[in-house]
Write a structure and sequence with these properties.
- With 181 residues, the protein is an alpha/beta fold.
- Helix content is 45%, strand content 15%.
- It has 9 helices and 7 strands; from the N terminus they run αββαββαααααβαββα.
- Strands 1-7-6-5 form a 4-stranded mixed β-sheet. A 3-stranded mixed β-sheet has the order 2-3-4.
- The longest helix is centred in the N-terminal third of the chain and has 14 residues.
- The protein is globular, with a radius of gyration of 18 Å.
């Protein structure tokens, strides 16, 4: 596979759904809905920026699920010391009564959450430079880094690299291989 750098595959920040930390979770969902209606390959995440447009974090599908079910915060503390097993997950579901509240309660909770309460502030490992290779990004994703990866040019955030977009590059490269069966 030819060497591809992150900049060739990333989505520029200007083309991504952005929200403010004071917006509500409902505002995020409405922004994503608008994107969905306008774009067949719509984003499922939003980038959080301050009033000046400076990157602050991201709100992903997993962040939204975790915000709607506060029991996950307790579980994540426990998980930090152990391994995620099927038994652990089922015990946690029962112990913390996960997703057992009526839909109305979840809707009420979700509508009151602000982006600041929901957003994920990326760790250092979740950032790539524009000139990094997609192999570096692929390794990060496969090892479990929180999606999507944030792309920088020096210290300035310039884009987002989505796992699905990387998969498409790999899929197309494999389908183009000239291999005898």
């Amino acid at each position: 596979m030819k060497k591809i750098i992150v900049k060739e595959l990333m989505i520029p920040i200007a083309d991504y759904v952005t929200v403010n930390k004071t917006d509500t979770l409902l505002d995020v969902l409405q922004a994503l809905e608008s994107e969905q209606q306008a774009n067949a390959h719509a984003h499922r995440d939003a980038i959080v920026v301050d009033d000046g447009g400076t990157f602050m974090g991201k709100v992903t599908m997993i962040d939204i699920f975790r915000a709607l079910e506060p029991g996950y915060r307790k579980i994540m503390k426990d998980r930090a010391t152990g391994t995620l097993t099927s038994d652990f997950v089922m015990k946690a579901v029962k112990e913390f009564n996960l997703w057992m509240e009526p839909e109305k309660d979840i809707c009420q909770r979700g509508s009151k959450k602000t982006v600041a309460e929901v957003m994920h502030v990326p760790e250092k490992i979740e950032f790539l430079q524009e000139n990094d290779t997609i192999e570096k990004a692929l390794n990060l994703y496969v090892m479990g880094v929180h999606q999507p990866l944030i792309v920088k040019d020096g210290d300035t955030v310039t884009g987002v690299l989505r796992f699905g977009d990387m998969f498409e590059v790999v899929r197309k490269a494999l389908l183009a291989c000239d291999i005898d069966h």
